[in-house]
Request: fold
Amino acid sequence: MSEFRNEFKNILEKYDTARYNLFKWRFESTFANKVVMALIFACLTGVFAQLRFYLPYTPVPVTGQVFAVLLSGVILGKWYGGLSQGFYTILGVLGVPWFADGKAGLEILTGVTGGYIVGFIAASLIIGWFTDSYVRSRSFIGMFSIMLVGIAIIYLFGVVQLSLVLGVNAQKAIALGALPFIGVDVYKALIASAIAAAVAPRAAYGNEIDSR
Reply:
């Protein structure tokens, strides 16, 4: 039994070292490497965007994008998580068919779902900033709380643009663009938080505010 505990402890120590080294490498990596990682996450967001279905009472589809957005901030950190979603947005506008339903073009960004896409950038930036700035944010509760904030930011951008495009009041826009998705997005946040808490190190790898 003692040997099993020691072996298990060694495995945990190796795992902690591995995830610390990964995030340390990411933090200290070159600009070119970080841009490549941002492009990879933009592609991942595009893939998850194709996992979608429509509800009968709203023009906004349920997609997998939010899951990729939430993780982009954690994995890429401040600035580059947001950059990944910036790439996703710009390249989609320029013609890469990776918005929901394999669509592309400026009309998507200015349409009923465009606000959510812009919100992806802001949400990833906020999540990345907290992940890189506070060691204590990397617990499951910390990650889940930050991701709920990220989802709220996405809803804010999405609902405002939905209201403007459809010409409806705030209450109607919230009913169409936020309320139907809260349950599934909270579920996505729970899964993303579990993954984030498992991979993000609990030790400082950069210039964390709470480790100075």
Summary: The domain at 2-204 is CATH 1.10.1760.20 (Arp2/3 complex 21 kDa subunit ARPC3). The chain has a mean pLDDT of 93.
